[in-house]
Amino acid sequence: MKTYFNLFLLFILLFGFNNLSAQDQDSIPGGNKVVIGLTETPPFVVKEGNGKFSGLSIDSWNLVNEKLELDYTFKTYPNLAALLKAVKDSEVDFSINPITVTDQRMKYLEFSQPYFISHTGVAKRKESKTWSYIKKLWSWDFISAVLVLIGVIFIFGFLVWVFERKSNKEEFGEDARGILQGFWWSAVTMTTVGYGDKSPRTFGGRLVGLIWMFLAIIMISSLTAGIASSLTVKSMNDEINSVEDLGRFEVSTVTSSSAAELLELYNIEGAMVTDVRGGIQSLLDKKTSLFVYDEPILKYEIERRELEDEVEILQKSLKKDYYSYSFPKKSVYTEIIDPVLISTLKTLKWSNLMKDYQ
């Protein structure tokens, strides 16, 4: 009797499971045929020569679909803006592209559990230190520091000449050449070289000289520091400490990207390009100074085009990004895919997959 009862329970469980699976399939519009939106985004979505796709996002979907066993097809779009619009308007059932979750996007899209954590990075052209020093020599900071130094030397040289021009004609003279001699004395005194070829003899001249000696110690220190500072080649890593600092540069980013939303949030005007290739090219063509975009995508594009000697990514990132699958609002696929994605992220297969992309 007990055996029959156990068989009856097993029948109920199997029947119930099959019925539940059927209900899940019925909840998918059009059966289990799904359309997945894509736009090429190396290294996450890469279009191969045979027309097939590869990359981390594709591999993650393959792992998820091992459990779902959905029949799907890819529908490609030329850029990120077009893809986001397609998902929003339900032209596709969802997208597995690396879409960053943002407050603005959450107003018109739904997102899965994040499957990759990234950062928003900043790329710039590389410049040689020699060229940077040359540019600094022509900067207003350097020129103004030199002009101030020359002006102060001239003032004290002129004051000494005023007192010495009659009583010490042989060293300072009465004409314009005497003013130049005063300038020479002032420069020698300030630098503490002390040639001794010229020295004031009058009380007024020696008083000016005494004041200048002590004042020069202070001024030469501050002016030297100012000149050295103006010549110091600061890297942009030192100059960019926050998003607000980007406002001092010519910036570009990708249209409809999370980086574009970030710049808009901080009221930073930037040139818009359609993809990462256009952004890197804008740096190479010197149309912009900085290109702000997703760090792993930037790194891949720079390495793919072998531009390591021309373009670099700043060490400091602007914000953390969370890549997720994106769905239209109220999509039935969110509840179907998200639990499977979460369980997939805990598997050894996923850990091994991530090692290939790190």
UniProtKB/TrEMBL annotation:
Coarse class of the protein's main subcellular location: membrane
Keyword Transport among UniProt keywords: yes
TM ranges: 142-163, 207-228
Origin: domain of life: Bacteria
Assigned keywords, A-Z: Glycoprotein, Ion channel, Ion transport, Membrane, Receptor, Signal, Transmembrane, Transmembrane helix, Transport
Signal peptide per UniProt: 1-22
Keyword Transport carried by entry: yes
Pfam families: Lig_chan
Stretches assigned to the Ionotropic glutamate receptor C-terminal domain: 148-271
Cellular localization per UniProt: Membrane
Coiled-coil stretches noted in the UniProt entry, renumbered to this chain: none
Topological category with respect to the lipid bilayer: Multi-pass membrane protein
Name of the featured protein: Transporter substrate-binding domain-containing protein
Organism expressing this protein natively: Salegentibacter chungangensis
